[in-house]
């Protein structure tokens, strides 16, 4: 009878050891998944911050009213900006960095470009998507 109790106690200890190992593996996988999400979100926030910074940099640049499409590159942040003159004296400033784009509308008034006070948009305000792309 004592021998049977020893075997059942040993089996219980082994079962608890296996269950504990499985739980630790699950927690480890979940932690790795969360860490991956944090890295992805952090990179997305960095890209968004860079493209917003490029948009403000581009807004402060002295743009001319010719040619119809003007592009500049901010080499310090590796971002691209283009100003597109549209019909009816409207303009569209496009900032792009690693797959993230922002747009800001403006108008030509008295030979100068004035951008909208409402800020940038994270979607293109034009129906023609080709006009929303960096050339």
Rounded to the nearest angstrom, the radius of gyration is 29 Å
Q: Enumerate how many helices there are, as a single number.
A: 1
Tell me the count of domains.
1
Strand order of the largest sheet: 1-2-3-4-5
Average pLDDT level: 89
* Main pleated-sheet profile: 5 strands, antiparallel
Structure summary, number of beta strands: 5
Structure notes:
It is a single chain. The chain is α+β, with helices and mostly antiparallel strands and about 140 residues long. The protein has one domain (about 1-130). Helices cover about 45% and strands about 25% of the residues. It has one helix at about 1-60, and strands at about 70-75, 80-85, 90-95, 100-110, 110-115. Strands 1-2-3-4-5 form a 5-stranded antiparallel sheet. A hairpin with a 4-residue loop joins strand 2 (about 80-85) and strand 3. It is rod-shaped, with a radius of gyration of 29 Å. The relative contact order is 0.11. The mean pLDDT is about 90. InterPro entries: DUF2509. It holds the Pfam family DUF2509. It comes from Citrobacter arsenatis. This is DUF2509 family protein.
